[in-house]
Design goal:
Helix content is 77%, strand content 0%. By secondary structure, it is mainly α.
Length: 182
């Protein structure tokens, strides 16, 4: 496991070093790619390298890979559009990136299950927060007036989940070994 981590770390360092070396040796290299506007692509690339490390045998790298790539995508959107004020609500997507990383990690670990439900919950919570904060700060067309319904649906979903778990607890009888013999 440590060998794989050092391979991924080495690839990341070499890639970043080559990029900065090209910027120093080739005149106007940074203007070729307009780094002033496309700099978040470097963050996305770093996240993709983490995801490649996850696919190469270190599944736990999927979580930081998803978070770094997701934040890079947010920053790229903001850099291209100039909509930097969207950070007021778009940060709510970060727990969803963690959720995607948990689901991906769970899928990459053979025979080990259990993180997918938690990841899915984080994705749903993140989407609900994004819609609520987005409607507050951006006035999503069509959603702006109806954000209370998002709260109602989220609360009903939480109550429904609690009701299902209570039913499951009641259906499982507590039998001691002496009761099973009778």
């Amino acid at each position: 496991m440590e060998k794989r981590n050092s391979i991924v770390g080495g690839i990341i360092l070499i890639g970043v070093g080559v990029l900065f070396l090209l910027m120093q040796l080739i005149p106007n290299f940074d203007e070729l790619f307009n780094f002033g506007r496309h700099w978040p692509l470097l963050i996305i690339l770093l996240g993709v390298l983490f995801l490649l490390g996850a696919l190469m045998g270190t599944p736990q790298l999927a979580i930081p890979g998803c978070v770094i790539s997701g934040i890079g995508l947010i920053l790229y959107y903001q850099s291209i559009t100039g909509n930097w004020t969207s950070w007021a609500y778009v940060w709510a997507l970060i727990p969803g990136f963690v959720g995607i990383g948990l689901v991906l990690t769970d899928w990459l670990i053979p025979g080990k299950q259990g993180m997918t439900p938690d990841g899915m919950k984080l994705i749903v919570i993140s989407a609900v927060m994004f819609m609520i904060f987005g409607s507050f700060f951006n006035g999503f067309s069509g959603i702006g007036r109806f954000w209370p319904f998002v709260l109602i649906v989220a609360g009903a979903w939480m109550l429904w989940q609690n009701r299902i778990s209570v039913k499951e607890d009641k259906q499982v009888p507590d039998k001691s070994p002496s009761q099973e013999k009778e």
